[in-house]
Amino acid sequence: MASQHRGEIVAAAVRKSGVKLSQLHRALGISRPTLYRRFDDPTLNFDFVKRVGQIIHYDFTADFKELSAPTALVAEPIVAYQLDTLQDCKDKLLYVYGLYIELVQQYNALLESR
After folding, report:
1. End-to-end alpha-carbon separation of the chain, Å?
2. 67-103 pLDDT tens trace
3. C-alpha torsion sign, points 102, 108, 113, 114
4. What is the three-class DSSP state of 4?
């Protein structure tokens, strides 16, 4: 059985959803060129696929059986993490920084509620 090109499947779902790519890349916290590179990735990370699905309101479990299996049983191949460009590095850092700020705000809100 030929393996699925995850990036192409996600790109097709995005086109069908009607969500603009400018909205999508901003919601994901990545640049537009990075988004296109993700669409070209045949082994696109399932966490990224899920995030795109949440944004475009699409359930990818019909397209990827791995998403419907219990998490502990899914064995995704381990690929060395590598950033191709300085822009990819910047995008990733900004995304992680955004997550950090969100956690700090939630933590501060929790402390204030006590």
Report:
1. 56
2. 776 554 555 565 556 677 888 888 888 888 998 999 9
3. positive
4. coil
Could you report the per-residue pLDDT of 17-43, keeping only the tens digit for each? 999 999 999 999 999 999 999 999 998
State the Cα–Cα distance between residues 100 and 107, nearest whole angstrom: 10
For every residue of 42-78, DSSP letters joined together read TT--HHHHHHHHHHHT--GGGT-GGGTS-GGG--PPP
Amino acid letter at 35?
A: L
Helices (H) and strands (E) in the chain, counts: 5, 0
